[in-house]
Design brief:
This protein has helices at residues 30-42, 52-64, 101-104, 171-176, 178-186; strands at residues 15-18, 72-76, 85-93, 116-119, 127-137, 146-157, 160-167. The chain is an alpha+beta fold and 196 residues long. The chain folds into 2 domains: 11-69, no CATH class; 84-196, no CATH class. Helix 1 (30-42) runs antiparallel to helix 2. The radius of gyration is 18 Å and the shape is globular.
């Protein structure tokens, strides 16, 4: 079984699944998907036509954001609110060598505050953690540094590791989707990747 065979039980009233390729899909490419999504997301909404183009532009930008090694991408677009950003999910095979989830998290670089790391419960995983951090980003030597809030989850089952990450230059936007990100991670049933 491959990672992309994993079925994710996500809440469609909170998240939109973004295709990472369009083979065997109803859409020819990301632009066609974004057109269709914008139509569906704004249909029957008050003033929907007025912001259809903005939804399409954001959907397309999210779909085209680099996705090397990403297994799944979800756009946070609650039915009762506005889009706040997206999350990338990486699922990879990994032999269990006794490493803890903390040891497997990617290095952070410079941070403005000490990251907060908590153990989390995810029924489909043997171990899981969440790390919240406030990174310092520098696009080039001539630019002023900017803050980049980040939320990460990492979970393990025998033979597999799962990593979820969501960044946002707006801490309020990241905070707005944090509960939904917790729920998304909790519903990743990695145990299904090891059929009995």
């Amino acid at each position: 079984m491959t990672a992309t065979s994993l079925s994710i039980d996500y809440d469609p009233d909170r998240w939109i699944h973004i295709p990472l390729d369009y083979v065997d899909s109803p859409w020819a490419d990301a632009a066609e998907w974004a057109d269709d999504l914008a139509d569906r997301a704004t249909r029957d909404r008050e003033l929907g036509e007025a912001y259809r183009d903005a939804v399409r532009a954001e959907a397309l930008a999210t779909a085209l954001f680099p996705a090397e090694h990403v297994s799944f991408r979800f756009w946070h677009y609650p039915l009762d609110g506005t889009p706040t950003g997206f999350a990338d999910i990486y699922v990879q095979r990994r032999d269990d060598d006794g490493a803890s989830p903390e040891e497997l998290l990617p290095p952070l670089g410079f941070t403005a505050l000490e990251p907060v790391v908590d153990a989390v419960e995810a029924p489909g995983m043997t171990r899981g953690i969440r790390r919240l951090s406030l990174g310092i980003a520098l696009a080039s030597e001539d630019d002023e540094p900017s803050l980049l809030p980040r939320a990460e989850w990492l979970g393990l089952v025998p033979g597999w590791v799962c990593y979820v990450v969501s960044n946002d230059h707006d801490a309020g936007q990241l905070t707005a989707r944090l509960d939904d990100l917790d729920a998304l991670f909790a519903h990743l049933d990695l145990g299904a990747l090891n059929p009995r």
